[in-house]
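User: Structure tokens for this complex, please. No commentary.
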Amino acid sequence: MEEIIQAMDLSYQYMNEDEESVLVLDHLNITVPKGQFLSVLGHNGSGKSTFAKHLNAILLPCGGKVYVAGLDTSCEEKTLEVRRNVGMVFQNPDNQIVASVVEEDVAFACENLGVPQAEMRKRVDEALKSVGMYEYRDRAPHMLSGGQKQRVAIAGIIAMRPECIVLDEPTAMLDPMGRQEVLKTIKKLNKDYGLTIVLITHYMEEAALSDRIIVLEKGQVLIDDKPRDVFKNVAVLKQTGLDVPQTTELLFELRRAGIHVPFDKLTVAECVGELEKLLGGTEKCC
Amino acid sequence: MLLKVENLTHIYMPDTTFSKTAIENVSFSIEKGEFIGLIGHSGSGKSTLIQHLNGLLTPTEGKIFYNGEDIWSDKEKIRRIRFEIGLVFQYPEAQLFEETVYKDIAFGPKNMGLSEEEIKQRVYDACDIVGIREEMLEKSPFELSGGQKRRVAIAGVLAMKPSIIILDEPTAGLDPKGRNSILNRIKQLHESWGITVILVSHSMEDIANNASRIIVMDHGKIVMDGGTEQVFSRVDELEKIGLSVPQVTKVFFELKKAGYPVNTNILTTGEGRDEILRVLGKRGDMKC
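Assistant:
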């Protein structure tokens, strides 16, 4: 499979105020194939966001290399092309919206890239439709809900026609409904358009939706596996300061109480299914 | 009754074309020592409501009583209300400004006109409860990690020893460990200081694990107000207004729907485990 992102022996460090060097990424090797939905987990300070910022040349490696669609991100002439391939969505929707009309905001990146007018119109409309915000194209962004604003921000990236979108905790500031809207959109873009997704998140239920999860700890890869297999490591995850979905935790607790249930179940429906098997026949009895 | 809100209405930019009613005829009261969860989707009026409780916004209509006294009866006294009712905003770390952690936490008590000795005591007490170590006090707040900054910001409000503390999404953006640490500290604070807590959160799990009463807002009105179990038993209504119930609660509702004899008042995974074990045990007893 073709790789879209290759981090090879990637290290990053900075000097703190006491002039001590702090190693944030420690010889990291991560390869992301085209079309994958990858979630990156880790507690605050584990290097997640620093890693994300290397993917579109906001930060450049102190050691090692990052290749995006085969382009070396540390090569200055390639920066624009790197950013055209990888778009970023940040946590706070209010910090990323620049225009006073939704469709103008979505067109912003295209304008910078010098996309011709007719083509731009087409791309903006398509992008807005793909995130379900087409009906809002002539509204003012500040009148939208948090989830809607995040979808507009995503549309702005889509209009650039990138290969990959990196989202750094895009739902941290949203209410449950906003979170669902954004996640549904991400999932759809991945499935229907084959976009590569890198999702940085603290929410285990979100990570459960992806193809692959990487858990970072002290700038190194601690776990790299399918969600089902990652959440099996309940004890390890808790030790690193992470959590598992409540559904997994419930089954894990039952297992600890001596009940034989598999606990690699992630969704409410799967968990209910497992418990039904366990309770099978209960209601018929007496 | 510690706090009473009576027929509160707030209209932003009244008498203009942008006029928007953010809160409409809201009434409720709070007893000393309660732990209340306040939920509602974005734009439901939660933030507007809490800013009224310590007099940051003035009601368009209606009244707020603290210890039986209208907080706006004497405008000069409104400052005192702000010492009594502490408000921790969303992303409070953005409000840190002093040179050192100590000075930042001491800012509130200093404004109260307390003696240096008393201020010091309060700073130490507040640090103790939020888990800020002494050697951090002389550091710049900007050197700290996100979770530490947030704890410093909360300590700054606690140092005023308010009788009510309102926290607007205190765990947003923190990792699970940071989240649990903050919530455990708040719980401790509630238990050991007997402080009344109003917790605004989008995480139904956090609310379920902590609050004993939930107030639900939708379109500027209170649509539910009751015990945690009772409110979370109204799954369908909550989902209709863009909210949810904790995942584990949902699991038990689904099981019940499928015809299993389980109780649905399950709020934590521990309770869930015990309920499954109970039902299984029962089946063992009644082997037909």
